[in-house]
Design a protein that fits this description.
Layout (H helix, E strand, L loop, with lengths): L8 E7 L2 H6 L11 E7 L9 H7 L5 H8 L15 H15 L3 H6 L28 E3 L9 H16 L2 H20 L6 E5 L7 H10 L6 E5 L9 H5 L29 E5 L13 H14 L3 E6 L23 E6 L7 H9 L3 E5 L11 E5 L1 H8 L26 H4 L8 H19 L5 H21 L3 E7 L2 E6 L9 H11 L12 H8 L2 E8 L5 E6 L2 H8 L4 H20 L1 H4 L2
Parallel strand pairs: 3-13, 5-6, 5-7, 7-8, 8-9
Antiparallel strand pairs: 1-2, 4-10, 9-10, 11-12, 12-14, 13-14
Length: about 600
């Protein structure tokens, strides 16, 4: 249990269920029931002003801690047997004092990479959002990145004192009992499922390669097939190929000195085959023959294969589960990784994937609308048993992983893997997951994983599609895939805009553009002033791209709790009105 003493706080204890404990490999203690306590008390003050500048300086604040680590005065701590000297405890206090002075916003931004760095002028990240609630914006961006929701903000206020105040042992309990166990319970994961957390769904792609090399230590290479590369995160293919995706190392914010971390990637031991999602006219490609060829070649060489499949691309298109891989066999040399990071799945579908012995990547953002940069890998029970049987000498955890993963990210039932990683605390990752889990638990508690909720989503798609057809001549529906509507945008005369032009349109949607156009009516001025967040453009083929409207967990929950369809669709029609206005004035705005 968490035992840290927090001032002016009251505690409400929640016992994690036995099945949830089993699902993460035995909880913090390796067995029995885990106890997770949630915090309720005075909210910390919010210091939004200057967050951008302070975020850029966060990493320089750890100089003293780094020096102590280099001098050997800060030892690695084991969650199983915690001990420390007076000097070690003093070093921990230095770190904790620094963290306690960091605001919610600063903690949320820490332990990630350059995609969350805020602009000096805009105080927004590369997704045009930030670590704060943005109530004046019209939001349909859950397929890319949401601003902080009210519920997630509440979760941050509840958990912030615990996250910043936890010492190494307490932080281990936090990650395993209050994140992994709750996640297992919310998703109803099968007993024995392992959960490995990561700064993002991109970074987690390194782990299956490490698993493959661990299971086949004599293999010279790991063959990796990455599918739908133009409809998944831009860094996924790089990470799956063992390459760095950012100049910022997430664990720098935990006190590790980047200069002492390896600069060597894993590309030399990985043979990557990248597969496009669509052909030149936007139709989905069947890559089964290519997959079969790679499997045959790898097996002839005695080398493992990691096959990726996407359970919800950026357009929310689902790829079929790859056939003929043999991944379900106990000693299979093929690992199937299913990218479910969009979060648009049912719990039954998730259990089915794990039942096929597939590794599944998820995030707490996207559909679930938690803060960006909360990733995890779900390891099926069959694979967990296989990894647990590997001797410590065969565990392959190359130094590159120390840029991203600490021992706290791996379940305690994989101690040989934990032992290869630094024992540091990624507090930003912890707070982001804790905020996301608040949204996830509320989503499932409201019955959003039900036929009724799916019916609401279908009604929304039909209503918005009908509005596009009758009211917005510059917009047309390319595909509607469940809770994501993919749209082409065209000028009055000429072909649909490509992804480059749509990027300009996407940026303009986030801004008040009423002063950029002359002769607008009062109604048009109001439309132009709206700030809208939608899904970023996706290149479908050379000729055109699409932009996206997507419902997130808070939107679906609101429908289940009584918000009318008319109220819901009104958000979309306001966004569409601005899209139409920009397209009508493309010669002025999109040049």
């Amino acid at each position: 249990t968490l035992s840290h003493d927090f001032q002016d706080a009251s505690w409400d204890e929640k016992e994690a269920s036995g099945s949830a404990t089993k699902a993460v490999g035995g909880g913090a203690g390796g067995g029995g029931s885990a106890s997770c306590r949630t915090f309720s008390g005075a909210s910390p003050s919010v210091r939004g002003a200057g967050v951008s500048a302070r975020r850029r300086g966060v990493r320089t604040a750890f100089g003293r801690a780094r020096a102590l680590r280099r001098s050997g005065r800060m030892q690695a701590f084991s969650m199983g047997s915690f001990s420390s000297t007076d000097q070690d405890r003093a070093t921990i206090e230095v770190d904790q004092k620094h963290y306690k002075n960091m605001s919610i916003e600063e903690i949320l931004l820490s332990g990630s990479d350059d995609r969350t760095v805020l602009g000096q002028d805009s105080n927004e990240n590369s997704y045009n959002t930030g670590p704060y609630v943005m109530p004046s914006h019209l939001v349909r961006s859950s397929c890319t990145c949401n601003p902080l929701t009210a519920l997630a903000r509440s979760g941050c206020e509840k958990w912030h004192p615990i996250v910043v105040g936890s010492g190494p042992q307490e932080f281990g309990h936090l990650m395993h009992d209050c994140i992994a166990a709750r996640l297992a319970r919310a998703l109803q994961l099968p007993d024995g499922t392992g959960i490995i957390t990561a700064p993002s769904g991109t970074d987690i792609e390194l782990v299956p390669v490490a698993m493959a090399k661990t299971l086949y230590p004599q293999a010279k290479s790991v063959h990796v097939l990455v599918s739908a590369i133009n409809e998944i995160g831009k860094g996924v293919a790089l990470a799956a190929g063992g390459k760095f995706t950012s100049d910022i190392s997430p664990l720098e914010d935990s006190g590790l000195d980047k200069e002492e971390l390896t600069k060597e990637d894993l590309a030399g031991c990985i043979k990557v085959t990248n597969l496009d999602a669509r052909n030149c006219v936007g139709q989905y490609i069947d890559h089964s023959a290519t997959i079969a060829r790679v499997l045959t070649k790898a097996r002839s060489l005695g080398e493992p294969v990691v096959v990726h499949s996407v359970f919800g691309t950026k357009t929310n298109k689902r790829e079929p589960f790859p056939k003929g891989t043999g991944c379900e066999e106990e000693d299979s040399s093929t690992l199937v990784v299913v990218d479910a990071c969009q979060g648009r799945y049912s719990r039954a579908e998730l259990r089915h994937l794990l039942g096929q012995n597939a590794l599944v990547t998820i995030t707490g953002s996207k559909q679930f609308s938690g803060p960006p940069f909360s990733g995890a890998l779900l390891v099926p029970p069959q694979m967990m048993r296989r990894l647990q049987a590997v001797p410590a000498s065969d565990v392959w955890m190359p130094d590159m992983l120390q840029h991203y993963f600490s021992s706290h990210d791996f379940p305690n039932s994989l101690p040989h893997f934990q032992a290869k990683l630094p024992v540091v605390q990624n507090r930003g990752l912890a707070l982001r997951w804790l905020a996301a889990i608040e949204e996830m638990e509320a989503y499932f508690a409201a019955g959003c994983d039900s036929a009724q909720a799916r019916d609401f989503v279908n009604q929304w798609g039909e209503a918005v599609g009908a509005a596009i057809k009758t009211q917005f001549p510059r917009v047309s529906v390319f595909e509607t895939n469940d809770s994501v509507i993919n749209m082409k945008v065209s000028p009055k005369k000429g072909p649909a805009f490509d992804a480059v032009v749509l990027r300009k349109l996407y940026i303009l949607l986030t801004q008040d553009i009423s002063t950029k156009l002359e002769g607008l009516s009062q109604e048009q001025i109001k439309i132009a002033q709206n700030k809208c967040l939608i899904g970023q453009p996706v290149r479908i083929c050379e000729d055109f791209g699409i932009i996206r409207l997507s419902l997130g967990a808070p939107d679906i929950r609101a429908l289940m709790e009584g918000t009318t369809m008319e109220e819901t669709v009104s958000v979309d029609t306001q966004i569409l009105s601005k899209i139409n206005l920009i397209a009508d004035n493309h010669s002025i705005l999109l040049v």
